[in-house]
Task: inverse folding
C-alpha cells in the first residue's frame, strides 16, 4: 500500500496548531516511572524505496493459497467464492462507507443487515439473528454469557472438549474474571454426568473440531431437563444437508461464517454468526435490524434493538460488543442468496462425498488408521502409525500441497494425528495426489 509521511515542517505546523512545542511534550502526563527510558530496539528508518523492497520481501514469505492445493481446516476453509460476491461487495457504497456502527446507519446497510439476518434464520432454523459478531470464537463466548443472563445461573457452564480449542480458550479467558466455572468434558457420557441444576449452559460443536457429528437432539433434551440452555456451534455449509439446529432443540446457534463467501485471508477478519429463539431476543448481544414503513408508507429499515452500553443504560446492556462485521455479513448474504437452498445442498454434498473418498483412500494405506468410527462431514482425523506428522506435512509442502493440520498443537495425546479438510474445490485428482504423497 502506498504511503506518505509527515515532513518536519508539517509536524511543526501541527504542533503549533495544538499549542505544543515538541512531540515529547504530548507525553508529559505519563510518569517517568513507567516510561521506557531508552530508544526502542528497532532498526533505523528506511527510505521509501528500501522500505517498499523490505515489505515485498516479507510478503514473499507468505504462502499463497492459489499456488497450493489446500486441505487445511480447523475453522478456516478453502471454499469456492463466486465472482459476484467481490463484484457487489467492493462497490463504493459498501466497501468505503463508514463502519455500520452508529444509530444513523444508512438505509442500504440496514437492508443488508436485515436480509442477512433473515437468511441466517432460514439457514439455522432459529427465530432471530443479530447483525453479526466479530468471529466464531467471540460468538461462542457471547452466547454463553447470554445464557447466564437468561438462566440467572452463574456457578458453572459445560463445554465439550471437541469444541474448537481456541473457542474454549476464549471462554476460559472471559470467564476467569466473572467467577463462573468452565467444566470441560470429553464426551456425551461425561456431559450427562456433569449436568445439574446449577448449570447455566452447555456448548457443543457439530460438526465438531474433529469433523464428527454430535447427537444434538439427544443432548438438547438432556440439557433442558435441568433447566440449562444448549449452545451449538455449527459449520454453515453443513446445514445444506444436516438437520437445522433450531429443529433439533438448540437454544442459541453460533458459527464462524468465513465459509460463506469469504476467502481465507490469513485467518481474518472473519464473521461471527449468532441466532436464537425469539423468547431470548432481548438478551441477544449486538444489534438487530428490523423492517417497517416510513411516514409515506414505503418499506424501510431501522435498528430495532441495540443492547449495548453505548445506546442504553450500562446496567441494562447485555454485552460490550461495539460493532458488527458489516462487510462480511454482506458477503455472506450475497453468497446465500446466490447459492439458494439447492446450491447449498450441492456444495455440502460435494464436501461430504469427497471427504469420505479421501478418508477411504488414506485408510486403505498401511500407514494410516482412523481415530474413531463416528460419522463426519468434510473433515476427518487420521493417525500416522509412524508418528511423523511434521515430516508428512513438510513433504507435502515440497509438492505445493497443504496436507492438513497437526493436532498435537492443541491435543498432546494426538501428536500422531492429522486433521484433513476436503471442500467442494478439491478434485479427485488432487485427493489422489494427496494419498500418493502421504503414502509414498
Result:
Amino acid at each position: 500500500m502506498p504511503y506518505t509521511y509527515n515532513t518536519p515542517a508539517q509536524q511543526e505546523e501541527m504542533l503549533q496548531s495544538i499549542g505544543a512545542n515538541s512531540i515529547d511534550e504530548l507525553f508529559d502526563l505519563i510518569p517517568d516511572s513507567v516510561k521506557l527510558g531508552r530508544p526502542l530496539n528497532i532498526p533505523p528508518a528506511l527510505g521509501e524505496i528500501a522500505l517498499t523492497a523490505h515489505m515485498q520481501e516479507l510478503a514473499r514469505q507468505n504462502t499463497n493459497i492459489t499456488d497450493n492445493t489446500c486441505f487445511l481446516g480447523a475453522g478456516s476453509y478453502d471454499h469456492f467464492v463466486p465472482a459476484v460476491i467481490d463484484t457487489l461487495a467492493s462497490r463504493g457504497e459498501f466497501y468505503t462507507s463508514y463502519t455500520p456502527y452508529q444509530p444513523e446507519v444508512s438505509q442500504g446497510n440496514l437492508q443488508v443487515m436485515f436480509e442477512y439476518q433473515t437468511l441466517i434464520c432460514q439457514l439455522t432454523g432459529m427465530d432471530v439473528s443479530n447483525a453479526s459478531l466479530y468471529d466464531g470464537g467471540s460468538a461462542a463466548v457471547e452466547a454463553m454469557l447470554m445464557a447466564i443472563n437468561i438462566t440467572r445461573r452463574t456457578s458453572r457452564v459445560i463445554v465439550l472438549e471437541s469444541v474448537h480449542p481456541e473457542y474454549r480458550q476464549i471462554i476460559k479467558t472471559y470467564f476467569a474474571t466473572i467467577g463462573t466455572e468452565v467444566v470441560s468434558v470429553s464426551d456425551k457420557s461425561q456431559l450427562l454426568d456433569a449436568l445439574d441444576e446449577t448449570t447455566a449452559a452447555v456448548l457443543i460443536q457439530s460438526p465438531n473440531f474433529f469433523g464428527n457429528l454430535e447427537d444434538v437432539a439427544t443432548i438438547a433434551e438432556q440439557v433442558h431437563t435441568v433447566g440449562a440452555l444448549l449452545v451449538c456451534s455449527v459449520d454453515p455449509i453443513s446445514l445444506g444437508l444436516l438437520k437445522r439446529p433450531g429443529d433439533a432443540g438448540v437454544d442459541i446457534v453460533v458459527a464462524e461464517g468465513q465459509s460463506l463467501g469469504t476467502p481465507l485471508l490469513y485467518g481474518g477478519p472473519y464473521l461471527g454468526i449468532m441466532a436464537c429463539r425469539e423468547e431470548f431476543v432481548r438478551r441477544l448481544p449486538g444489534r438487530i435490524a428490523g423492517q417497517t414503513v416510513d411516514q409515506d408508507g414505503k418499506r424501510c429499515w431501522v435498528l430495532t434493538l441495540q443492547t449495548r452500553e453505548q445506546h442504553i443504560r450500562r446496567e441494562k446492556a447485555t454485552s460490550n460488543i461495539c460493532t458488527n462485521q458489516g462487510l462480511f455479513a454482506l458477503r455472506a448474504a450475497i453468497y446465500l442468496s446466490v447459492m439458494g437452498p439447492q446450491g447449498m445442498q450441492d456444495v455440502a454434498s460435494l464436501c461430504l462425498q469427497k471427504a469420505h473418498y479421501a478418508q477411504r483412500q488414506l485408510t486403505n494405506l498401511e500407514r494410516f488408521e482412523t481415530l474413531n468410527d463416528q460419522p463426519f462431514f468434510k473433515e476427518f482425523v487420521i493417525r500416522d502409525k509412524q508418528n511423523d506428522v511434521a515430516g508428512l506435512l513438510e513433504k507435502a509442502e515440497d509438492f505445493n500441497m497443504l496436507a492438513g493440520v497437526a493436532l498435537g498443537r492443541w491435543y498432546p495425546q494426538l501428536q500422531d494425528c492429522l486433521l484433513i479438510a476436503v471442500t467442494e474445490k478439491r478434485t479427485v485428482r488432487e485427493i489422489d495426489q494427496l494419498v500418493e504423497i502421504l503414502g509414498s
The chain has a mean pLDDT of 92. The longest strand covers residues 299-306. The chain has two domains: 65-80+341-439, 83-336.
